[in-house]
Design goal:
Methane Monooxygenase Hydroxylase, Chain G, domain 1; 2 domains; 16 helices
């Protein structure tokens, strides 16, 4: 037996002994194991069986697959964010690298809107979208989790209500005043439309848990706990700013322009499938959602989204 083989066996023994397992049992298991294949590991058959059309229009398949790709990328984003959120000893290089990865995913999301924006016939879209009501991309739970994981809750609260909300505000109250409630809630009466009602029935309890979990470990809070010298790291600041603008301006506007192309094609005012005033809801100059406000100048904050 070679020295390399002896070393491998020693390392295997150490690994399984450390978790109170018999190394010989695991080694024997390798004798009977099938060789792994791409289709066993990636499971493309399962993945490719998840596209189910509701209509006979071919371009609906583009719409479905594109949104499923978005959800996979959202999962990648959360995977990277959580590594920062759960880290006990953050370093600037680690933080910056994770932010660069996250930003690349959103860069890809931003540029990918041409797949949907230029990849469907307007006539087909305007027909099959009627079968989607009241569903909406607004109802992506992962995207809401990305927001909770990125910044403090106060930065996600509707501007009209921020002065009355702080860290001591119950999560339930803060939840009812999140900026995206405006997409489906009459704040004068408190009445919520079907879009919000169905969304909350499925995810509200989970969202409240996430709000609590990320309250002290979101990206912005983690950044503020770093030593002053680390917070001044130019690469880290640039990575933070790039992520903030990519998510809250660039990606949002790519979505906005894709919607604009289809929904204004008839020359008539068309509501989003969820029933919202999509132009006012989506445009960043109205939402004014900013993850890391202290990293932007007063002028940049005042003109947020205007250059979009």
């Amino acid at each position: 037996m070679s020295e390399i083989q002896n070393d491998l066996l020693k390392r295997i023994e150490e690994k399984f002994t450390a978790i109170n397992q018999n190394p010989n049992t695991h080694l024997e298991g390798l004798v009977w194991a099938n060789p792994i294949t791409y289709w066993d590991y990636i499971l493309p058959d399962a993945l490719l069986s998840l596209q189910v059309q509701r209509t006979t229009l071919p371009d609906e398949m583009v719409f479905i697959m594109y949104h499923q790709i978005n959800e996979l990328l959202f999962k990648m984003v959360l995977w990277e964010i959580d590594q920062v959120c759960e880290s006990e000893e953050l370093e600037a290089a680690f933080f910056s690298e994770k932010l660069r990865r996250i930003s690349r995913y959103f860069d890809m999301l931003s540029s990918s809107f041409s797949i949907m924006g230029d990849g469907m016939e307007i006539a087909q879209y305007m027909k099959f979208r009627n079968t989607l009501t009241p569903a909406s991309g607004f109802q992506s739970a992962q995207y809401r989790q990305i927001e909770f994981a990125s910044t403090e809750l106060i930065n996600l609260i509707d501007n009209r209500y921020r002065k009355d909300i702080d860290r001591n505000t119950p999560y339930e109250h803060a939840y009812d005043h999140l900026y995206w409630q405006a997409a489906g809630k009459d704040h004068a009466t408190g009445k919520k439309n079907t879009l919000i009602t169905l969304f909350e029935k499925r995810y509200k309890s989970e969202f409240l848990d996430k709000m609590d979990y990320y309250n002290t470990r979101n990206l912005w809070t983690k950044f503020k706990t770093l030593p002053e010298a680390v917070k001044q790291d130019p690469q880290l600041i640039q990575a933070m700013r790039h992520y903030d603008k990519t998510v809250n301006v660039t990606w949002v506007m790519a979505h906005y322009h894709a919607a604009e192309k289809y929904l204004e094609s008839s020359g008539k005012k068309v509501e989003a499938t969820g029933g919202s005033d999509w132009k006012k809801y989506m445009h960043p100059k109205f939402q004014r959602r900013i993850f890391f406000p202290e990293l932007w100048s007063d002028s940049e904050l005042a003109n947020w989204g205007e250059d979009a």
